Amino acid sequence: MATTKRKRRRRSRGRRNAAPMLAVLVLAVLILAGIMFAFLYEKYSPSKERMSWNTYFEVTTGDEAAVILNDQMMDFKAKIIDGEPYVTTDTLYDYLNSRFYWDSQENLLLYTTPTELITASVGSNTYTVAKQSYTEDYTPVKVDGDTAYVALKYIQKYTGIQYELMTDEVNRVNIKTKFGTAETATVKKNGNVRYRAGIKSPILTDVAKGDILYVLEEKEDVGDWTKVRTSNGFIGYIRNKYLGQKGEETTESNYTEPEYTNISKDYTINMAWHQVTNADANSKVLETIANTKGLTTISPTWFFLKDDDGNIDSLASQTYVNYCHQNNIEVWALVEDITHKDSITDKEILSRTSSRQRLVSNLIAKAIEFDLDGINIDFEYINEESAKGYVEFLRELSIMCRLNGIILSVDNYRPAGHNRFYNRAEQGVVADYLIIMGYDEHYAGSEEAGSVASINWVREGIEETLKEVPAEKVINAVPFYTRLWEERPKTAEELAQESDTDDYVPNVVSSKAYGMDAIDKILATNGAEKSWDETTGQYYAEYVSDGKTYKVWLEEEESIALKAALIKEYNLAGISAWKLGFERQDIWDTILKYVN
């Protein structure tokens, strides 16, 4: 009996010892469950953190405004002046309307339409359209230090833009320059738009049931999130479960772009340049055109930029014009920046409104005085610094040409990365014709001998130009000349002077330009034989004389025929040639096969 009681006591003590252990185990499980719950809650519960509006819009001062342009947050800011949003002239040019021109030297903002020049002066609420003055209740252009600001309200007068200024908490302006149909979504229950696609991303703004959001394209996979823009200017992400009915919203610009009218001939232009270096050369015009056939247009080199104030030298001749008109040949007088290049600066002439407009006035006055049919611009020393002023010059000149029925043509290098600033696209809008100088593939300063105009090089120049300019405005120019290249071995002294880093060039290369008959005589004298080069589309010849090697890629009937054929192939406006006097008479029969 005593033994049984002892066993019961031992069992009781065992149960009493197990109870604390069980409690500890339960507590451990509860703690672990709590940790897991906290972890899962932290991982899967939406963050309530909010990004401040100043942080999101990156606005630091009271007169600054964030810019949302075509549903994209921009890294530049607008400026609020007297309650109106302004942007810098750089922003205006780069993003809104590149046809505005800011003259920082004379503090003028200009805009051209097809027939009018519009001018706004810094600090004035009056601007002029042609000679008519208009007044606004704001100032179109203001300057702060070296930075000029333009009112969006003024820009809107001449640009297809819509904008909305929002000033609650943080200044921001939503600008639209692209119009059409946008996808929308209606919010079906209250929610948040977040900075990134994820519940842990900070909240940008709240949205309520019934709000309209603008659905934006997202290149990356963001799962069950959608990129949106809110009506108050935030661009972020919202979970799809908050979105209801999809829809569309169509917007249209309330600005009508003016139509640029141009003079367009109803025939294929057959043009050539006539190099006139002095007044006496004008007297040879009858002899010059008598050697041509089917010539529709002649461009004498008559006008020369003289100084940085927009004045010109002139070799124009009324007798010359009369002779040409009597032979049904139009005269497009050329103006160039080459003759006085050492004493003039294109940027000085073209960037200042006073000198630029003096140049325009001088050219138009000469065109009217001598009854010219057209003006041909041949500015070959334009660089990136003078490019904007150059294009503005063409715009302003085109206005006066358009008002006076004068044809405006512009000579251009073959398109390349280093001359993109010539802005052929804008030239193609304001000018009547754009002429490709389809030669100088290899030129006087080239370090190696080569063709002046190989066929594929010419073809590529046309194709690149047509990416920016309509074919009916494009004239391709061909060379009536070729270059005879001379190669002589470098002397030991010349080789010794070269740096180890220089590319090894064994020969000294030079060249001289010759007309068609002149080069044939040289080849005949030296017994050189010609062979057809399929790659360049030209006859090639070489010979050795006095230890020097002479090479030439010829321009003659067959090579010119290949180039002239491109006029029809690409439906171009015509052909031109540099220069009269270099050709032989038979070449005109070749050209006429392709321009009639």
From TrEMBL:
Membrane spanning stretches: 21-41
Residue ranges of every copy of the GH18 domain listed in the record? 232-596
An example of a GO molecular function for this protein is: hydrolase activity
| InterPro entries in alphabetical order | Chitinase_II/V-like_cat, Chitinase_insertion_sf, Cu_amine_oxidase-like_N, GH, Glyco_hydro18_cat, Glyco_hydro_18_chit_AS, Mao_N_sf, SH3-like_bac-type
Domain SH3b residue range list: 182-247
Q: Tell me yes or no: is Transmembrane helix among this UniProt entry's keywords.
A: yes
Alphabetized, the UniProt keywords read: Glycosidase, Hydrolase, Membrane, Transmembrane, Transmembrane helix
Q: What family does the entry list?
A: Belongs to the glycosyl hydrolase 18 family.
The protein, known as: Glycosyl hydrolase family 18 protein
* Organism name: Laedolimicola ammoniilytica
Q: What is the lineage of its organism?
A: Bacteria, Bacillati, Bacillota, Clostridia, Lachnospirales
